[in-house]
Amino acid sequence: MSWVGSSVPRVEDPALLSGRGKFIDDFHLPDMLHAAVVRSPYAHAKVGKIDCAEALAMPGVHAVLTQDDLPQPFRDQRLLLLVPNPAIRHPITYFALAKDEVCFAGEAVAFVVADDRYIAEDAAERVIVDYEPLPVSADCKAALEPGAATAHADRDDNIAADFPMTYGDVEDAFAGAAHVVKESFFTHRGGGHAMECRGVVAADDPVTDSMTLWSNTQAPHMLRNVYARMMGVSETQIRVIAPPDVGGGFGPKGMYYQEQFCAAAAARQLGRPVKWTEDRRENFIATYQERDQYWDMEVAVDGDGKLRGIRGRLIHDSGAYLPWGIITPFISSTTIPGPYVLPAYHINLVAVFTNKVATTPVRGAGRPQAAFVMERLMDRVAQELGIDPAEVRRRNFIQPEQMPYPVGLVFRDGSPVVYDSGDYPVCQAKSLALANYESFRERQAAARKDGRYIGIGLGSYVEGTGLGPFEGVNVKVEMSGKVAVQTGAAPQGQGHQTMLAQIVADRLSVKPEDVSVTPGDTAGVGIGIGTFASRITANAGPSAQMAANTVREKLVKAAAHLLEAAEEDLDLADGKVFVKGVPDHGKSFAEIATFTNGMPGFALPGGVIPGLEETSYFTPERSTYANGAHVAEVEVDIETGDVKILRYTTAHDCGSMINPKMVEGQVMGGIAHGVGNALYEWMHYDEDAQPQTVNFGEYLVPMATDVPRAQQVHMETPTPLNPLGVKGAGEGGTIPALAAIAGAIEDALAPFGVRVTQCPVTPPYLLSLLDAARKEAKS
Amino acid sequence: MGERREIQLTVNGEAVSREVEVRWTLVDFLRHELMLTGTHVGCEHGVCGACTVLLDGRSARSCLTLAVQADGCDVTTIEGLSPKEGLSPLQQAFADHHGLQCGYCTPGVLCTLTEFLETNADPSEEEIRIALSGNLCRCTGYQGMVDAALAYVAARKSQLA
After folding, report:
1. Using the beta-carbon criterion (under 8 Å), do B37 and A23 form an inter-chain contact?
2. CA angle, corner A668, sides to A445 and A758, nearest 5?
3. Domain ranges in chain B?
4. What string of DSSP letters covers A680-727?
5. Which residue among B43, B104, B132 sits closest to A23, beta carbon to beta carbon?
6. Which of A177, A208, B103, B108 is the most exposed place for a label (fewest CB within 10 A)?
């Protein structure tokens, strides 16, 4: 039997369920000190003198690091930008601690180290910083106006990047159009808000002159590489380990941050391990978010509703710095065509500096906003032409026989965007059938008779997943006979260990629970990329398969020698290699591993390869595209603006599934995040760019009573781009949820003629729409 | 150093006597003094529920409870709800129904449900969701944990029948 494709129990669960997980804040090293961060209370200010005397005089305080106290090159250089783009005009990143100028409220200014966190926080309050407040860039649209305050004092404007993205003849598409529909949208997303905040433990070893950083990062190798490059040390002198358990990632933990470098500097300076654990308020003000986008869009269609072209402008809030370049708005703008045949497209993308924390990808990475915009436009076309929204989409879907389908866009590495596989019309049909779409208008009519406003909304999407270049996996049969797997790919709850154990167990004919998987250690696998972009199953999965295949070959080769049998006569089962049909005539993995590990002075026989170990790096040619269709049915309370999701249906295709139950969990979790983005989550800043929603009482993430039970149907269209046929599943649940829910709300309120052009669709926003509609009806 | 005071309490069935700073929260005391790291800190303002423990059998936010307030109390954490070997029936239901992903909120969820299910023999899905509404989870969308609770209740009923 095959473990791949079956919902085996997760190997991660027993420890997590019984309180034996090992999260970053669970690490207690001997002599460890604790840090707290002094953060700017101003969104924009010059930093003058920093007086640490009082803090340093407090009992239990060991150090207060400011910019001047950091080792070089951190005093002169900003943190490296690993994803440059020629369109970036001003590639400005963070300093490890602010130097001369702070550009958002929450920026780290000093790093206090003490015997415990309580003392460190007391001392942080006694660090006196002279600030000279500067004018503030608080909104990315207003920041483009002539004379607007600049987010950086040395800049003349706030444009971080400004470039067009285009294909086809857009002028022609609009000139010959039967209908043109225009709409402006404002999309807002909050943050990742993993239940576990960020954290780091740094330990310096003066004997080997090496640093170990434990951090709940999604990308340990990236952190290692930046540290090694900046410090000018060998990669062997910095080891980054993501703890075996990380309490959710969702994007923001994929980046590197000021505090990781501060902790390392402090540990080195003090000769003791230093821990910093972010608290929830810090997570709201200093962990990267997604936030605001303004879209002005125009769509041209034929008389039958077929798309001819789309053009428009996207203004994206970059925040104060570009730690991850312009990846998010880039993805947003390339997501617009979605699952549709769109012959011509032109968008001007402007990424804008504001005095707010930086924006970087959050689950969906700019796609939920684009799907919201595109699906809203499809609904507009349906309204304009008087066609059913599902039918408009049907008329425009890329057909399965058009695969592989070149969209016309260019990916960030310069290669063409090509959808590899998928059947979008069937996927939509499955979602509609499960949602009883055909009978909805009867349900709606009946509800309206009772004075209830219910509506239905659709969201179709494609998602680029499995982004390369690689993620390595090492498979080893140890001398104990146990199978050990290492990978650079750090998990945050997805179940990487189970997924990799399933793949390796199949190849080595053992059980998944017999395979121990250690992810996220830079000492385990030499190079690595990181866990983001729904890429691990499609990158590390095939790597695991390749490495395990090679280890299997080595096992057989060595066993053939030991058993004096032909390789083709051997089989594997239960941790043994044996002669087919004679299970007793065999050698255990332990015996074979001991043999191949050799003995001093004893030559290995010809053909036997040392060790039962292999590291493989599968390198996908390009991204593979998952797809799906969501249907939301909602009820709107027109008095309070409250929205209740009555029913939620998805059809989802992420290629072959390694573990269907885990895929379902990913989709369901993604939907919940999408529900938050559609209805609740708002990272509010005031006109001075002061963050106003800094706890879970003010910033609402969905609760068990907010998230509907979702019905899922799966399709499995294997991708030809990797040997497992797998695509990513981590973000598809989130991407179309905003669109589907917003469409349903608008449909519910069709009697009032309101147009939903913003997400999240909060009660105040809905009430303002209803109010305006009523006033218009009166006049 | 702040003011210190001696407290005596029972933690997971064992008598504990310690001197604590009066400002220490119960969760910091559990995690950093007793090394019971199964209880997690999620928000430190009583909203997310990750730090939920049982205080004299009632679910309580250990981030909003001071260690000194637990003086004389009986505290049960996730470690105390876990059998020495294997999983409890409720924990097993969570594993069976994919009721957890990253597992960070899970100890708090299990503490909340332990109290709730002790006092509710046959709760509906809606009642379970309301009970869980004080425990935020960013991974699962709650469906797996709701299904786990429903399955646990069904199994318990069939055993009693």
Report:
1. yes
2. 60
3. 4-81, 89-160
4. I----B-TT--B---STTTSPPP-TTTSPPEEEEEE----TTSTT-B-
5. B104
6. A208
Task: Report DSSP state, residue A199.
Answer: E
Q: Tell me: cis bond preceding A469? Omega within 30 of 0 counts.
A: yes
The CATH number of the domain covering residues in B89-160? 1.10.150.120
Top-level class of domain B4-81 = alpha beta
Q: Looking at residues A710-737, what average pLDDT do you find?
A: 96
Cα–Cα distance, A501 to A659 (Å, whole number): 11
Q: What CATH number does domain A289-467+621-778 carry, 3.30.70.660, 3.30.365.10, 3.40.640.10, 3.40.50.1110? A: 3.30.365.10
B32 CB neighbours in chain A (<8 A) are: 28, 116
Distance between B7 CA and the closest CA of chain A, angstroms? 19
Strands (E), A592-692: 613-616, 624-636, 643-653
Nearest to B143 among A193, A495, A710 (CB): A710
Q: Report yes or no: B109 and B137 within 8 Å, Cβ to Cβ.
A: yes
Strands A210-215 and A108-114: unpaired
- pLDDT at A778 > cutoff 90: no
Report the run of H or E that residue A577 belongs to, with start and end.
Answer: strand A576-579
Residue of B nearest to A14 (CA): B87
The CATH fold assigned to A13-18+33-134+193-286 is Aldehyde Oxidoreductase; domain 4 (3.30.365)
| Closest residue, chain B, to A674 (C-alpha) | B141
Q: How far is CA A243 from CA A247, A518, A607, A727, in A?
A: 10, 9, 39, 26
Interface of B with A in 28-87 (CB under 8 A): 28, 31-32, 35-45, 47-48, 50, 77-79, 81-83, 86-87
Confidence of residue A316 (pLDDT cuts 50, 70, 90): very high
Instruction: Please work out, in degrees rounded to the nearest 5, the angle formed at the alpha carbon of residue A187 by the alpha carbons of A186 and A192.
Output: 155
B44: left (phi over 0), alpha (psi -120 to 50) or beta: left
- Could you read off the pLDDT of A349-400 as tens digits, one per residue? 999 999 999 999 999 999 999 999 999 999 999 999 999 999 999 999 999 9
CA-CA distance, A440 to A428, in Å (whole number)?
A: 16
* Of A117, A695, A705, Cβ closest to residue B47: A695
For chain A, domain boundaries: 13-18+33-134+193-286, 289-467+621-778, 473-616
Position B155: which residue type?
A
Rounded distance between C-alpha atoms, residue A346 and residue A352, angstroms: 19
- Contact indicator for A536, A620 with CB cutoff of 8 Å: no
Whole-structure pTM value = 0.97
- Which residues in B lie closer than 8 A to residue A664 (C-beta atoms)? 98
**Ramachandran assignment for A306, one of left (phi > 0), alpha (psi -120 to 50 degrees), beta (any other):** beta
Task: Tell me the ipTM for this assembly.
Answer: 0.98
Tell me: cis bond preceding A760? Omega within 30 of 0 counts: yes
Integer CA distances (angstroms), A336 to A41, A95, A110, A629, in order? 38, 34, 42, 15
Q: Which two tokens stand for residue A420?
A: 């590899």
Cα–Cα distance, A650 to A430 (Å, whole number): 8
Closest CA to A477 of A610, A599, A583: A610
DSSP state of A121: H
CA distance B72 to chain A (A): 24
Q: What are phi and psi of A612, to 5 degrees?
A: -115, 70
A241 has which bridge partners? A214, A521
